[in-house]
From TrEMBL:
Protein name: Hemerythrin domain-containing protein
Keyword Cytoplasm recorded: no
Family label: Belongs to the hemerythrin family.
Coiled coil: none
PANTHER family: BACTERIOHEMERYTHRIN
Start and end residues of each Hemerythrin-like domain: 22-127
Transmembrane segments: none
Alphabetically ordered keywords of this record: Iron, Metal-binding
């Protein structure tokens, strides 16, 4: 008898909103794809996982671009967390292909646990920073580019790290 419980999906709630429309749209897509993975049998996850990995790469690249454009160093702690997650995600695919078919579900469950805190701290902080410096995330432009000193901030854009 299989006593395993079904993975619990991550609900898209107002607590996940950052205040930046484009960021929130990307996050909603991330949550939707994550939940699709959690609802898919392990032996059918790989194509969906590859799509999710590509989406996550684009998602993190987008935020990393915004940080650099608004004065963060390229190696700030927020971007570092993105790089760490992506490295893990790439390793998960390799393990899945070697026969560990439950690993994608385990990662998806871990991401469902990690993401709310990341969105509420680092991403909400970044969204606030973008508003402060008048960065339009849809056009990826600054109202006044001369107001930004390049590569001066190494923090994550939130009060949880400096």
């Amino acid at each position: 008898m299989n006593t395993a419980t079904a993975p619990v999906p991550l609900a898209w709630t107002s607590e996940l909103h950052t205040g930046d429309g484009r960021m929130d749209e990307t996050h909603a897509e991330f949550v939707e794809q994550l939940n699709t993975l959690l609802a898919t049998p392990a032996d059918q996850q790989l194509p969906l996982y590859r799509t999710f990995l590509a989406h996550t790469q684009d998602h993190f690249d987008q935020e990393d671009r915004w940080m650099v454009a608004t004065g963060f160093t390229a190696d700030n702690c927020h971007a570092g967390q993105h790089a760490s997650i992506l490295e893990t995600m790439r390793a998960v695919e390799e393990h899945y292909l070697k026969g560990d078919q439950e690993i994608i579900t385990r990662l998806a469950e871990a991401l469902a646990e990690w993401f709310p805190q990341h969105a509420a701290s680092m991403d909400a902080g970044l969204a606030m920073h973008l508003r402060t410096v008048q960065f339009d995330s849809r056009t990826e432009t600054l109202a006044d580019p001369s107001a930004i000193r390049p590569a001066t901030m190494s923090g994550c854009g939130s009060v949880s790290c400096s």
